């Protein structure tokens, strides 16, 4: 193997610069002066992530405050709904030896309501995406979402104040608060994730020489992955501080304080948004592109329908399905007027739909994660907590994430790349299914021993003495640690990677929409979770965790076999240049939206 001289490297770099920005080409202000890799360098050079722009951290602070308020209030929902108001209490506080509670509706009602809340929070992003992409843009939609969520937080406080919490009217106020807060959360979540990643503008691979002399490729896809890693880190810092402080507020003061403090922190959101309003990179609304996508798909599907499902599947998934629908392949005299876009945009739509196909597997994964703040919290209440609030254990999940996210980004992932291991996005998602399944197996084993050691055995959740004090298993509550840490690893592999995949694979004018589809999978999971509510009670909880674990494990295996061919095309999908949708397509979309 011959090694090029330094002068040859400089000459090659100049040629690559000229090929990119030669005569007649326009500089874009983003990639100017960069050196682009040759095909040989794409294969031979190590890839690294770029630095994260400061604007992204500013937006992450907004997300931190919002997640503090979301998790800080919702972490005490299980006790608020399930457990009864302690004798003589006017705030729901249980203090050191008692169990905090308010509504006393039982574990099934608790699991049902919290599952509904999860469903509602993750179906409303579809509305948030539509509003942002079509009318207001992401930043303005986020501002409206903050106002709506703030109203919901105020109603939640009303449901918990002394004088209301003792009466059945608290149930109504609490339910209204869930609906209003969920709407605000959905409008917010669909747009904050794309907005943070849009702060990084580069989209093409380029070569740099490090201080050590090593030439490496800076990969925008890895950079977006890094953006979302630290974005998720901020999420979990907010969740951790919110959950720990609110569980102690609930236990020693009352639910009114556990709902008031998150509301005060939430007020940071409008302040930071206002301060940074002129710093953010924003994508303006482009009108409704979704009707144009449907038209394109319908056009591509012409002549491919069949009453034989196998034949139709083969035709619809054929390699030339989208190729024959490109504008360049249409004769000028028969080309539809609405086809006011280029070939690259067709490729982007194809890529976005493939990403949505990947997301269709996520509802089973979220079934395991959703055990975190309902059934696992209830399980903790049946063990010896030694003065620790039963719902504080769920904080092991964000603690593990805060520790292991930087370790994965700075040590584990770079080490794998140096070793030549391609731990791609789809491989990470598969690993997420596996670790999620392992978390449920751990929980099932713990539940078995809870039943075995509890004085009431298979009635552990309702076991009380003559004075109505809870009787618990002598097992130390910290044996739940394994489940929470395994769930944290599954989030690093599946949840963070899902955010990255949604952003990098979506057309630029459909990023909120594709992100909302990813979030909507959690809503579907919550709906599926309602079917398992009957298992969320004694004596069936071992079955509950066991079924979740088996489902996640089997789904992970099937998932990998279904996407392994797509995994081989990862670089090609990331290298697609940005497509263009003309004004006619946008206007057509607006007209269809009005109809």
UniProtKB/TrEMBL annotation:
Keywords noted in UniProt: Membrane, Transmembrane, Transmembrane helix, Transport
Molecular function GO terms recorded: dipeptide transmembrane transporter activity
Keyword Repeat carried by entry: no
The UniProt record lists the keyword Transmembrane: yes
Transmembrane segments: 117-136, 143-165, 171-192, 227-246, 252-275, 352-369, 399-416, 428-450, 477-501, 513-535, 541-563
GO CC entries: plasma membrane
Principal location listed in the UniProt entry: membrane
Pfam families (UniProt xref): PTR2
Subcellular location: Membrane
Membrane topology: Multi-pass membrane protein
Family stated for the protein in its record: Belongs to the major facilitator superfamily. Proton-dependent oligopeptide transporter (POT/PTR) (TC 2.A.17) family.
Name of protein: Peptide transporter ptr2
Organism: Hypsizygus marmoreus (White beech mushroom)
Record lineage: Eukaryota, Fungi, Dikarya, Basidiomycota, Agaricomycotina
């Amino acid at each position: 193997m011959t090694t090029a001289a330094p002068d040859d490297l400089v000459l090659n770099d100049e040629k690559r610069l000229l090929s990119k920005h030669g005569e007649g080409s326009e500089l874009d202000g983003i990639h100017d002066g960069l050196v682009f890799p040759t095909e040989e360098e794409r294969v031979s050079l190590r890839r690294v992530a770029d630095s994260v722009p400061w604007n992204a951290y500013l937006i992450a602070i907004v997300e931190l405050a919002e997640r503090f308020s979301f998790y800080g209030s919702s972490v005490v929902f299980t006790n608020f709904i399930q457990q009864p108001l302690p004798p003589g209490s006017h705030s729901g506080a249980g203090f050191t030896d008692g169990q905090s509670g308010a509504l006393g509706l039982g574990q099934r009602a608790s699991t049902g309501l919290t599952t509904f809340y999860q469903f509602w929070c993750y179906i409303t992003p579809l509305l948030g995406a539509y509003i942002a992409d079509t009318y207001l843009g992401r930043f303005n939609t986020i501002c409206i979402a903050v106002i709506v969520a703030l109203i919901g937080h105020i109603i939640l406080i009303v449901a918990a104040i002394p004088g209301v919490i003792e009466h059945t009217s608290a149930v109504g106020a609490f339910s209204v608060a869930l609906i209003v807060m969920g709407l605000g959360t959905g409008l917010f979540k669909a747009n904050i994730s794309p907005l943070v990643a849009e702060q990084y503008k580069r989209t093409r691979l380029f070569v740099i020489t490090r201080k050590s002399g090593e030439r490496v490729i800076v990969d925008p896809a890895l950079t977006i992955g890094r953006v979302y890693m630290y974005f998720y880190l901020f999420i979990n810092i907010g969740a951790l501080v919110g959950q720990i402080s609110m569980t102690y507020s609930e236990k020693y003061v009352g639910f009114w304080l556990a709902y008031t403090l998150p509301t005060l922190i939430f007020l940071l959101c409008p302040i930071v948004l206002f301060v940074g309003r002129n710093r953010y990179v924003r994508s303006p609304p482009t009108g409704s592109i979704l009707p144009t996508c449907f038209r394109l798909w319908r056009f591509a599907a012409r002549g491919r329908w069949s009453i034989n499902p196998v034949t139709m599947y083969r035709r619809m998934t054929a390699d030339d399905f989208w190729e024959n629908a490109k504008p360049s392949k249409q004769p000028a005299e028969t080309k539809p007027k609405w086809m006011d876009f280029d070939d690259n945009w067709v490729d982007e739509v194809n890529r976005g739909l493939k990403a949505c196909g990947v997301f269709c597997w996520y509802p089973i994964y979220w079934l395991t994660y959703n055990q975190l703040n309902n059934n696992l919290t209830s399980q903790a209440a049946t063990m010896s907590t030694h003065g620790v609030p039963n719902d504080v254990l769920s904080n092991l999940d964000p603690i593990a994430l805060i520790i292991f996210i930087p370790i994965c980004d700075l040590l584990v992932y770079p080490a794998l790349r140096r070793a030549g291991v391609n731990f791609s996005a789809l491989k990470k998602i598969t690993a997420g299914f596996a670790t999620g399944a392992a978390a449920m197996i751990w929980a099932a084993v713990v539940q078995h021993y809870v039943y075995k050691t509890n004085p009431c055995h298979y009635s552990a959740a309702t076991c009380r003495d003559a004075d109505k004090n809870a009787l618990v298993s002598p097992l130390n509550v910290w044996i739940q640690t394994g489940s929470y840490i395994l769930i944290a690893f599954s989030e690093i592999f599946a949840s963070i990677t899902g955010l990255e995949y949604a952003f990098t694979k979506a057309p630029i004018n459909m990023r909120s929409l594709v992100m909302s589809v990813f979030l909507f999978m959690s809503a579907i999971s919550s709906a599926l979770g309602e079917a398992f509510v009957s298992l969320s009670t004694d004596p069936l909880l071992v079955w509950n965790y066991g079924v979740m674990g088996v489902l996640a494990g089997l789904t992970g295996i099937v998932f990998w076999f279904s996407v392994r061919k797509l995994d081989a095309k990862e670089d090609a999908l990331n290298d697609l240049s940005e497509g263009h949708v003309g004004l006619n397509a946008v206007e057509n979309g607006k007209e269809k939206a009005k109809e």
